Structures are given as C-alpha cells and as structure tokens.
Amino acid sequence: MAAPSSNASKLSQVQALVDMLRTDLQDHHLPPEKRVITLEKLKVFGRDVNQSDPIFTMEAKMLCKHAFEGTDSKSAQEAMRCLANALLKVPGTRQIFVELGYTGQAVNRYQNDSLDEEFLAGRILFLVTYATAETPKWLEEYKLANYLNDAITRHGIIYSKINKNEQPSALQDMAFTETTKLLFNLTHFAPEKVDLFSRSIPTLFKILCRRTLPSLPLQSSVAHLVNALLNLDLSSQAGCVFPSFDPTCNVARLIEVLDLSVESPNDNRNNQRNQLFNEAGAPLVTLLRKVFEISSDQAKKYMRIRLLPSDEERKNPRGKDDSLASRLLQLSTSAAALNIRQHLASMLFEVSNSNPEEFVRNVGYGYASGLLLSAGVELPQSALESLSASSDSSGRLFNPITGQALDSEPETKDPFSEMTDEEKEREAERLFILFERLKQTGVVDIQNPVEKALHEGRFEELD
C-alpha cells in the first residue's frame, strides 16, 4: 500500500490518524472498511520510526484496544499488525505493552483456528518475551502451553495431508514459524516448564520428516523447528523420537538437514552455505548431540556410520574426500567456521563414545589434537603407542596422525637414489658450507652434521 500524502508533515498525519482511531473507540463513528484503511495508513507510517512517535508511546493503548477489544476481526488483525511492527521497530514499546496488561488477551488469540491470528499473536508474544519475566505465568495461568500444543497439532494435521509434490501455503509456513520461535523463547526463559510441551515432540518430528527440505534448510522454517526441539525433554518421548517401525528415521532426517547445510570449506563456490551454517548451525549440531545421548544402540550405530569417516575412506588421509564426515572434519578446523567448529569437534568426540583413543582412531590425531588440547584431555603415552599399531575393521594398519591406511600411503622415494656420486659429494659440500655459515651467525649453537658424520667415520673415501 502506498504511503499517505506528504503534503502535511508526517508527524501531524500520524497524530491525526491516532486521534481518529482513539475517537472511534468512544463513538464507533468509523465504518469497518474505513477503520481498516485508517489502520493500514498508520501501519505504513510505522515502518519508519522517524516522526512516528505517537505509535511508539502510551498511545499504543489505542492500538491494543482495537486489536483485543474490538468486534471487527479485520480491524483487529490490522491493529495487531501495527502493534507487531511497533514492538519490532522500537523495543521500548514491549515494556509498554506489558504494563498495559494485554498479554492475556494476546494469548487468547491462539485459541482461534486462524492462521492470521496465530501468526500475529505469535509474533507479538515472541517479541514481548524479551521484556518480561512472566512467561511461566503465561504458560499455566493463561494456558498458553495448551494453546501452543494445539496449534502445533493443527500444523501436524496440515502436513499429514500433504502429498509429495505439495507444500504448505506461505501463510501456514509463516504461522508455524512464529509458533516455533515463540516455543523456543518460552522454553529458554522458563526451562522449568518444558515438560508442558512434551506432547508436541512427536508432531514436530513428524513435520520435520514430511516437509520438503529446501536447498538451504537453515534459511527456512526448518531452522526454527530445530530450535523449538532444542530445549525440550526428548527423553520423555523417546518412543516417538526413535519409533519402533524405524528407530533411525528422525535421526536420519536431522543428518540430512546437516548434510544439506555444509560444504567443503575449500570449495569457494559454496561460501554462502558455510557462512550460514557457521552463523545458524550450532542448534542443529547441539540437537544431534542431545539425540545421540539418549539414542538406542541402533540409532547410535547409524549416527556413527553417517558422521564418522568409514574404513573405506582410509584410502586417503582423513578429511580429503567429499563425504559428509570429511566435510565436518574440514569445518572442525576451519578458520572460516569459528562459531561452529568447536560444536562439530565435540559432536564427533561424543559420537566416538567420548573416548580419546577411539576419537583419534576415528578421525586421526591431526584433527583430534585440537579438541583434546582445548578440553584438557590428555592422551596417555600407552594409548599413543597402541595407536601406532592400530588397524581398522578389515585388519589394515593405519597412520594414527592422518588416519590413512598405511598400504594406501604413497611410497617415499629416497631423494638421493637418482644422484651420481659426484652429485652427492657436491650436495654434501653445499650442506657443510650452509651449516658453517649458520654457526658463524651466533644465533644457534649447532654442530655441522656433515662434520659430525666425518668424525664418526660415516663418510666413505671415493676413488
């Protein structure tokens, strides 16, 4: 909608609209259509904070009355849009909203089977959680936990009707996103109440498994769904997290999201994907770690197969191919993944049963050493000695530093094998001169190895 006329100053136009809407609360002189248009004009002005002061002060009480005390649903929703915009643009209005005492009415909007009102109420309450410590009161006294669970159930029904080639409508996806964002904040600010949302765990996993994943899942509602699961007590619904018909289906879906979210840091074409993962990937990795902790043996085995390098990959040093495990290893030491690499290393360590020796055997000491050092975990000398003779499941010995099978390592050529005796003699003279010059600098006290070899009789006189 185009902005209202700029003939008068913006501030005076905003004030005139606010006065008109305040008067309408008393005498209801505006027809519903005119009231909606007036609120739309005010919403457009509110997109820019400059000269829109009346929207962001106690005048917001007028908007609250239109939003939660009016009888016209279209006007109420437009007023809620104005409020949501104000709460986003000027954080100070969140405290004003709490002081005006309209939180309970906003919660009640979740009872309606309306995607528009779920979207708007969800966004308003999500923003207000940052301005109050009363979230536990919302959950039980205002019954918000029940309303949120019911809303998630309704979304589960929507997804259960979707065919493979269909997706939820844009409004359905937007409403679900606001609900999951609110759920995350509620469980974050009121962790003692997370059990109130346990019945939503199966539905959230069902939605995760049945919706089509976009190419960048962490840029979609999938990321908010993962966040919503993060603080919940998954062990309370372990039978649904690891269903008997397929104990690995939910784990497989989370790993699929992970697979779509990471690329090799050496592939410059996919910097955007890894940048996004670096910024938003920690909840996904943390959720996988929580799931592994409560997993059945079958699910743990599946996670190890998918997340850790296989014996087949020992043909090359660890982290040198394009498998998911290799990409995770590369990111766990990448300077371009500062926010996420510690989370990745910790996940790989835990999937290795939190056993330092097993961790080194799985990923190679080169990758494992950083995490072990930062965590203060010391690998015993006996373990290092046993690793030097370690073998994979097929019995092949492997290099404990790189993780590569010894029979796959390139043969090391003797650098002197193709030199003539005269060339070897000239090389020895060159090295002798270089070491003598180094000694003369006084920087280091070093014995010339050529001189040492001569004294020890390791030089052979040539004809």
From TrEMBL:
Q: Does the keyword Signal apply?
A: no
Gene Ontology terms, MF aspect: G-protein alpha-subunit binding; guanyl-nucleotide exchange factor activity
Q: What domain of life does the native source organism fall in?
A: Eukaryota
Keywords, ordered alphabetically: Chaperone, Cytoplasm, Guanine-nucleotide releasing factor
* Primary localisation category: cytoplasm
Region Disordered: what ranges? 401-423
What GO CC terms are in its UniProt record?
cell cortex
Q: What biological process terms from GO does the record include?
A: G protein-coupled receptor signaling pathway
**Subcellular compartments:** Cytoplasm, Cell cortex
Keyword Cytoplasm in the entry? The reply is yes
Q: Which Pfam families match?
A: Ric8
Looking at the UniProt entry, the stretches that span the membrane are none
PANTHER family hit by this protein: SYNEMBRYN
Q: What is this protein called?
A: (Perigord truffle) hypothetical protein
Species of origin reads Tuber melanosporum (strain Mel28) (Perigord black truffle)
